[in-house]
Amino acid sequence: MKIGLFIPCYINQLYPQVGISTFQLLQQYGEVEYPISQTCCGQPMANSGCENDSIGAIKVFKKAFEKYDIVIGPSASCVLHLREHGVNIFPSAKEVIDKTYDLTEFLFDIIKIKHINATFPHKVALHKSCHGLRGMRLESCSERVKRAPDKQKKLLKLVDKIKLVSPSRADECCGFGGTFSVTEKDVSVQMGNDRLADYIHNGAEYITSGDMSCLMHLEGLIKRQKLNIKVIHMAEILASNKVMVPEEKEILETSNIH
């Protein structure tokens, strides 16, 4: 399988370790490449009400990934944006977008992994991002009678020595919401603080998610208040026992993933 590694722009710039962990995980299932021509998926423009202005980003995405058998990214929000907006904005990209998956979908639905070589001896709370939860149905929603498979939770349970902590309000928004956190910052901060208080109250040492954007918002609040809790992307936990060999380091340096 020839896999195209789709790394959201903010992960590339601020959290390269998430991209590296995703790269390491995917190497077990095929030949992984990171096309350096990729840029933003265009979601910030759509979130700001300028959906059609993201057509340039969608065109770049199509050209960068059309040669791959499958495209995988560690971000439900970016993948969902491509599915819900990208095809409407630039219909010619449909074939590429149809083979683009979030990391959770790939591991749970396509590979159907039953075992993973990972160890993470910590108390971890799973933060269910709104895009992953209500857009892609990666987890069950409390407001819906019809249950969905708890895909992210089941993947985390494969990790040795991890202890999953259940918050009191399991699927409440963190307040990031893309540009909402800028235009309604006071509300956004309060929502984020509410989530942190819930996780801390229930004994979590780490907060994990399939969306680094939510974790980025929460991490900002954690650092400002010097709270005793950390954030970590799911890919980092699932790749916790991976050791990067020199050849992998060279590939990453060459592809400019840092």
Please summarize what this structure is.
The protein has 258 residues and is of the alpha/beta class. The protein has helices spanning 9-14, 16-26, 43-47, 55-65, 76-89, 94-98, 103-111, 130-135, 151-156, 180-183, 185-201, 212-225, 234-238, 246-255; strands at 2-5, 31-33, 70-73, 100-102, 123-126, 163-165, 206-209, 230-233.
Pick out its properties.
four-stranded parallel sheet, Rossmann fold, 258 residues, globular, 8 strands, oxidoreductase activity, Fe-S oxidoreductase, Cys_rich_dom, disordered C terminus
Model description:
Pfam families: CCG (PF02754). This is Fe-S oxidoreductase. GO terms for molecular function: oxidoreductase activity. Residues 4-83, 124-218 form the Cysteine-rich domain. The chain folds into two domains: 2-112 and 244-255, no CATH class; 123-238, Rossmann fold. It has 14 helices and eight strands. It has helices at 9-14, 16-26, 43-47, 55-65, 76-89, 94-98, 103-111, 130-135, 151-156, 180-183, 185-201, 212-225, 234-238, 246-255; strands spanning 2-5, 31-33, 70-73, 100-102, 123-126, 163-165, 206-209, 230-233. α11 packs across α12.
